[in-house]
């Protein structure tokens, strides 16, 4: 038994990829493998049950497992391999080990701080080879050296030159064999070694020179000012140049770039061609004040068009806050919108590029969320090129032992099987090679790919920081480093590519251009305008208005309702859904009132029929968390999970707008960031993100604070994104009651957005239509109901849709004597219906109820109009379900107080102030709700 195990040991563990590779070659051409293996595979094909595994379209893991199992059982006789027996097998294992682990011995660190780690699998002695074996010849297998046989010494030297030089490649974990072969074909053959022309190499030097010279120019001209220098990582500018040039040649028409502050000013000037004079004005505080708030110079975005061999490429650098990596999903959303607009060629023509820092890319969870949806239907952009500026330190005080738990900062990308190319930032040609390789891989396979530029940071975290305090050993080496530019210039001079004086002349020429404030990227196209550019013209400078004709003729509503309830033949609905559709038919006939779900769907239908595009995303938007929307129907008799889904809104008219309705991954931060980015690039589209519960948006608070609430004030970026946040106290505990109204109210200023709390089906219908029909583009925050979705008093008639409008304030609808009213209770949302029910039950006739449907901007005029209808009222009460320190009270008190008439007082009725949004005890919730209602109506003190 032991003898059998030893004779088949190479079928297990690290040898599995070797077997898989041989089997792949056998499938392509049986004659391409050695006779011994060909005979073995032929025998396998004849074994009972083996035929089910054979074929190129199945996973190979079961095949390899079958090999091993049958070998254990003695069902197969495995002969020694020809050309050296088991030593030949060991050579192939060694080759595979370098593909897997060669990066561990790659010469990546410009500072040369670390000793080469012990990796036994890369040492020939691990496989039993001795000095005598180095001169022996072996077959090279799939390792393309240009010859089929070579000595072990030659094989080793070639492996180390390919996988252990200034590039360390990680890709063997990729399941797709074609992708692995593609990468191997660009690393292993002799022709794969990059050979650049003298002109190309001079350009590389010029780009490195531009990056370094700009930083040193700013350092001496603006002493002590923050700029987050790129010195030590100048190769990033070369990588961007190579990316743009290669991208243009492969069909890229647009690039959207996301990055944090490190090196951002350099990218603005040396990549996008921002005029140096504009940058200097920002340093000197001379920039014209145009925005309500503005932002620091290393957060600002920019766009330009540059010429490439493949035609103009439009570059956009996204605006971003200091929250590291948060801009990344915003970029992906913007790219997705642009790709959708371009149609079938969108993924090839629009490229997302994300530039990361080493500590942030591993440390910020938004990257995991983003990668998790990178290959899904409604969010995949066909692959992103990630460039990591790896200065090996993170923040200045970071101890390497505390930076991360993984070996590389880029290990997170392995979750989507993205190939990762680590490269020494001191080798510009290696950087250019892997950048081009990365772009071509992305274009070929539509997958994420990573270029990890291992470099260093010349200065501290910012220019006022002193890194020697906490990193003395590292910064002794940094201070002794001559700089990437100088090293490369000396290399080119030694090879006769440039004269000794050329490098210094490049610096002088660049500094002269800086002094003159000239464009430094050649050529920047100043008069080019793409026909597919986003047209914000109709929305720029739009005056804020609440009024808009959102009515739709009843005949059109009935027609669209018919389309909404038309089910394809042989399509079986779930009985509960069938009942909803039957009821919706009755609603269209006027036999049932229109409920929230129908009103919302009709809003989408009318917009789609008018040619507007609609995009709805969130964790359960097709059905709706509370079983109300049913924008997607699922055939109960479907045989496969990806079949049998029907979207009525996608078949609403013969010629209509595009519908996108996607149940997102379980993510808030990255998905909301994505939708914000999408909305900024799609002003003519209704873009909606819905939280499963309103408080789930808490996980996306950075996006809300930094982009939605403040994006226009800081960067002048308009956005019409709609957030639907289910809100209401129904005894579901502290995590599922409050959408945190107070947070949105606190962020409201300068007409930055609208915050609404609609209370019936007509209100949501007109509110959603208003969002698109007005010229202005402001974010819309909507607190939507849960229990009210099926409340009979929250319904409306078709006439309310055909003739009504969105009401910012709804007056009291009860029949009562206004002169008897002593108290006016103002409220918002669900609590109104409980107050109205209690008023009827207790026959209260001296309390009026006003609904504030738009919390911000507050419609003072309409509120005063309604208040004046009750001239005898001396008390005005704000009633809310939320605790007193939450909800809208603190933000609304001063506006309510300003609207009071002579002799009136203002007070609040709410739950007591509390650190938690709501009680988790059902009995306490019921009692608290009863107390709030009764106190508001004056039934108890």
Automatic annotation (TrEMBL):
GO molecular function: oxoglutarate dehydrogenase (succinyl-transferring) activity; thiamine pyrophosphate binding
GO cellular component terms, semicolon-separated: cytosol; oxoglutarate dehydrogenase complex
Reported cofactor(s): thiamine diphosphate
GO BP, one annotated term: tricarboxylic acid cycle
UniProt key word Lipoprotein: no
Start and end residues of each Transketolase-like pyrimidine-binding domain: 594-791
Matching Gene3D superfamilies: 3.40.50.12470, 3.40.50.970, Multifunctional 2-oxoglutarate metabolism enzyme, C-terminal domain, TPP helical domain
PANTHER family for the chain: 2-OXOADIPATE DEHYDROGENASE COMPLEX COMPONENT E1 (PTHR23152:SF4), 2-OXOGLUTARATE DEHYDROGENASE (PTHR23152)
Protein name per its UniProtKB record: 2-oxoglutarate dehydrogenase E1 component
Organism: Sulfurisoma sediminicola
């Amino acid at each position: 038994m032991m003898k059998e195990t030893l004779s088949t040991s190479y079928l297990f563990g690290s040898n599995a990829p070797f077997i898989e590779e041989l089997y792949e070659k056998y499938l392509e051409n049986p004659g391409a493998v050695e006779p011994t293996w060909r005979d073995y595979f032929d025998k396998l094909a004849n074994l009972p049950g083996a035929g089910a595994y054979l074929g190129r379209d199945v996973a190979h893991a079961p095949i390899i497992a079958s090999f091993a199992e049958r070998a254990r059982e003695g069902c197969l006789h495995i002969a020694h391999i020809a050309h050296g027996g088991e030593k030949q097998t060991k050579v192939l294992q060694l080759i595979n080990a370098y593909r897997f682990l060669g990066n561990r011995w790659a010469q990546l660190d410009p500072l040369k701080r670390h000793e080469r780690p012990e990796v036994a699998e890369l040492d020939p002695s691990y496989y039993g080879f001795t000095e005598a074996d180095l001169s022996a010849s072996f077959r090279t297998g799939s390792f393309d050296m240009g010859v089929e046989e070579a000595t072990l010494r030659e094989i080793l030297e070639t492996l180390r030159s390919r996988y252990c030089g200034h590039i360390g490649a990680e890709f063997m974990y990729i399941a797709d064999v074609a992708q692995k072969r593609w990468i191997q074909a660009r690393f292993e053959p002799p022709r794969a070694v990059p050979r650049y022309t003298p002109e190309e190499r001079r350009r590389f030097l010029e780009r490195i020179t531009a990056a370094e010279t700009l930083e040193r120019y700013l350092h001496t001209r603006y002493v002590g000012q923050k700029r987050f220098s790129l010195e030590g990582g100048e190769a990033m500018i070369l990588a961007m140049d190579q990316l743009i040039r290669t991208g243009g040649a492969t069909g890229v028409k647009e690039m959207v770039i996301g990055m944090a502050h490190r090196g951002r000013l350099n990218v603005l000037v040396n990549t996008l061609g921002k005029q140096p004079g504009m940058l200097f004005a920002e340093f000197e505080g001379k920039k014209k004040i145009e925005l309500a708030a503005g932002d620091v110079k290393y957060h600002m975005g920019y766009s330009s068009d540059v010429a490439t061999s493949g035609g103009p490429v439009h570059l956009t650098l996204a605006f971003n806050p200091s929250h590291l990596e948060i801009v990344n999903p915003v970029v992906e959303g913007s790219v997705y919108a642009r790709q959708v607009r371009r149609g079938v060629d969108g993924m090839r023509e629009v490229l997302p590029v994300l530039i990361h820092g080493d500590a942030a890319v591993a440390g910020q969870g938004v990257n995991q969320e983003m990668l998790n949806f990178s290959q899904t239907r409604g969010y995949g952009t066909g692959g992103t090129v990630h460039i990591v500026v790896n200065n090996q330190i993170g923040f200045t005080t970071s101890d390497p032992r505390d930076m991360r738990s993984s070996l590389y900062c880029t290990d997170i990308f392995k979750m989507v099987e993205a190939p990762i190319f680590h490269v020494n930032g001191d080798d510009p040609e290696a950087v250019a090679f892997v950048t081009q390789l990365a772009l071509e891989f992305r274009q070929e396979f539509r997958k994420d790919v990573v270029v990890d530029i291992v470099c260093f940071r010349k200065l501290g975290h910012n220019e006022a920081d002193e890194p020697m305090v906490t990193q003395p050993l590292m910064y002794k080496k940094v201070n002794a480093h001559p700089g990437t530019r100088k090293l490369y210039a000396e290399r080119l001079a030694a090879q006769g590519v440039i004269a000794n004086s050329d490098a210094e002349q490049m610096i002088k020429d660049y500094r002269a251009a800086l002094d003159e404030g000239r464009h430094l990227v050649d050529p920047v196209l100043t008069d080019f305008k793409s026909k597919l550019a986003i047209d914000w013209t109709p929305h720029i400078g739009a005056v804020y208005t609440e009024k808009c004709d959102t009515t739709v003729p009843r005949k059109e509503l009935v027609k669209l309702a018919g389309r909404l309830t038309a089910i394809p033949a042989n399509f079986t609905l779930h009985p509960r859904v069938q009942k909803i559709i039957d009821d919706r038919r009755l609603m269209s006939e006027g036999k049932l009132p229109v409920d929230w779900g129908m009103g919302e769907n009709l809003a989408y239908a009318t917009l789609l029929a008018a040619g507007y595009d609609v995009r709805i995303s969130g964790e359960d938007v097709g059905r709706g968390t509370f079983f109300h929307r049913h924008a997607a129907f699922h055939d109960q008799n479907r045989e496969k999970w990806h079949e049998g889904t029907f979207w009525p809104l996608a078949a609403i008219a013969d010629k209509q707008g595009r519908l996108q309705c996607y149940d997102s991954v379980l993510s808030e931060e990255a998905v909301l960031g994505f939708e914000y980015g999408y909305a900024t690039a799609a002003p003519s589209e209704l873009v909606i993100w819905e939280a499963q519960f309103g408080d789930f948006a808490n996980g996306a608070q950075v996006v809300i604070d930094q982009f939605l609430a403040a994006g226009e004030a800081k960067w002048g970026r308009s956005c019409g994104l709609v957030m639907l946040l289910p809100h209401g106290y129904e005894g579901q505990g502290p995590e599922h009651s409050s959408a945190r109204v107070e947070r949105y109210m606190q962020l409201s200023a300068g007409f930055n957005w609208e915050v609404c709390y609609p209370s019936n089906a007509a209100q949501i219908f007109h509110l959603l239509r208003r969002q698109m029909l007005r010229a202005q583009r402001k974010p819309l925050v909507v607190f939507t109901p849960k229990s009210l979705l099926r409340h009979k008093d929250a319904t409306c008639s078709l006439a309310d849709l055909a003739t009504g409008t969105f009401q910012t304030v709804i007056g009291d609808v009860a029949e009562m004597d206004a002169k008897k009213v002593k108290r006016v209770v103002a409220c918002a949302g669900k609590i109104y219906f409980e107050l109205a029910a209690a008023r009827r039950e207790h026959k209260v006739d001296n309390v009026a109820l006003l609904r504030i449907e738009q919390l911000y901007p507050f419609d003072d005029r309409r509120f005063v109009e309604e208040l004046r209808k009750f001239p005898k009222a001396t008390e005005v009460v704000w009633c809310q379900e939320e605790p007193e320190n939450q909800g809208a009270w603190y933000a609304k008190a001063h506006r309510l107080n300003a609207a009071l008439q002579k002799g009136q007082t203002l007070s609040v009725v709410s739950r007591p102030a509390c650190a938690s949004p709501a009680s988790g005890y059902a009995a306490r919730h019921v009692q608290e709700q009863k107390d709030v209602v009764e106190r508001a109506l004056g039934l108890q003190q």
